[in-house]
Automatic annotation (TrEMBL):
Domain Leucine-binding protein: 28-365
Keywords: Amino-acid transport, Signal, Transport
InterPro entries for the chain: BCAA_transport, Leu-bd, Peripla_BP_I
Family listed: Belongs to the leucine-binding protein family.
Any single GO BP term: amino acid transport
Signal peptide: 1-24
Pfam families according to UniProt: Peripla_BP_6
SUPFAM superfamilies per UniProt: Periplasmic binding protein-like I
Organism: Bradyrhizobium macuxiense
Protein name (Swiss-Prot/TrEMBL): Amino acid/amide ABC transporter substrate-binding protein (HAAT family)
């Protein structure tokens, strides 16, 4: 486990002029990015999330209350106990004010316990379980990018409406995969379809053969991939080798990213129906951010990376508006201020911590339809946030009375 500390500053002394003597005496604002640098989720977050955080800090000006904003990073190793240990150390001993990213739902839920204990802010931009703002919600945690409920309702509903009414799930065997299977299964059954079964695999497994054979034998029209990152990529590649699609079944990538499409290539990924919260080629503001990110990383940002930039910038603006780093005034400002940036132009932060915004339904282009590198998606629909995300009253969040 490795922690890297970086200090980013720009004209820090100038900020003291407006901050006033009392505010200038505060300790430096410190942000922690707890991510996956080298495993199954490194492409969708990882170093790209660190770079996105730096971009937000630089855009803000690099300093707060006359002192340089500090950034620390670490690898959670996709283990809940590691995440709990790091978040405890950061909050308790290293004066970290806000932690962002959290690569898996298990690491997010473990970190959220530390966030509650120390009453400090956590913003989840990678993990997806809808429980984060449901039964496990916290007054100190915000969930920014997407969740299993939104993805299930956006993609699952579209597929069932188009005739995909029998499903078999290949599921990552931890809270994230279980949440996808549960939420998508609910959508399928509500629409009159049937779930014929599921096969659960370990995180970051190299061999999907036994799980794909079970899916084939189920005769389900849709094989739902209730996993993410490298697991989804490997499942799709091996499904092609097994002739899943050639045999008449279709794959549903319920949680997929542009980095997955890039790794698969359009020949293999063409025709997939997926949902994302951000695509670099949607409009002028998404293209501008995508270009800036590409200049630094030599690849287009995933929705998680764009969301990490968005959440960091929103947090920094809230600290400035509140005039303090104290948790409760900052969270109040974050909830009271609409989110309008390169990630979304219609975001709002709810009482349960869910940042609600539009989701987009995409179809992956055929190779001959793509006009340039990273030109991968056709927009099928923009789904308003109040339709994509679970209604506040239905989440089971104890904060909602």
């Amino acid at each position: 486990m490795k922690s890297i500390a970086t200090s980013l500053s720009a004209a820090g002394l100038l900020a003291a002029a407006w901050a006033g003597p009392a505010l200038a005496q505060q300790t430096p604002l410190k942000i922690g990015v707890l991510t996956d640098f080298q495993s199954v989720y490194s492409d969708i977050g990882g170093a790209g999330n660190v770079e996105a955080t730096k971009m937000a800090i630089e855009e803000f000006g690099g300093s707060m209350f006359g002192k340089p904003i500090e950034l620390v990073t670490a690898d959670a190793l996709n283990k809940a106990d590691v995440a709990a240990t790091i978040t405890r150390k950061w909050y308790e001993a290293e004066n970290v004010d806000m932690i962002i990213d959290m690569p898996t739902s298990a690491t997010a839920l473990a970190g959220m316990e530390m966030s509650k204990q120390f009453e400090k802010i956590m913003i989840v931009t990678d993990a997806a379980s809808s429980d984060i703002t449901g039964k496990s919600c916290s007054p100190y945690t915000l969930h920014w990018t997407y969740d299993t409920y939104a993805n299930a309702h956006t993609v699952g509903s579209a597929i069932v409406k188009n005739g995909g009414d029998t499903w078999f799930f290949i599921t990552a065997d931890y809270v994230f995969g279980h949440s996808i299977e549960r939420d998508t299964g609910d959508v399928v059954r509500a629409a009159g379809g049937k779930v014929l079964g599921s096969a659960r695999h370990p995180l970051n497994t190299p061999d999907f053969s036994s799980f794909l054979l079970q899916a084939q034998s189920s005769k389900a029209k849709i094989v739902g991939l209730a996993n993410g990152g490298g697991d989804t990529i490997n499942a799709i590649k091996q499904a092609a080798e097994f002739g899943i699609v050639a045999g008449g079944q279709n794959l549903a990538g319920i949680v997929m990213f542009i980095s997955d499409i890039h790794s698969l290539g359009l020949k293999l990924a063409q025709g997939l129906i997926i949902t994302e919260a951000y695509y670099w080629d949607l409009n002028d503001r998404t293209r501008a951010f995508g270009k800036r990110f590409f200049e630094r990383m030599k690849r287009m940002p995933t929705m998680n990376q764009a969301a990490t930039y968005s959440a960091t910038l929103h947090y920094l603006n809230a600290v400035k508006a509140a005039g303090t780093k104290e948790t409760k005034p900052v969270l109040a400002k974050m909830r009271a201020t609409p989110v309008r940036d390169a990630f979304t132009d219609n975001g709002v932060v709810r009482e349960d911590g869910r940042m609600v915004h539009s989701m987009f339904l995409f179809e992956v282009k055929k190779p001959e339809e793509s006009k340039a590198p990273w030109d991968y998606y056709k927009v099928l629909a923009e789904v308003p946030g109040d339709q994509a995300f679970r209604p506040l009253k239905d989440g089971g969040c104890p904060l909602i009375k």
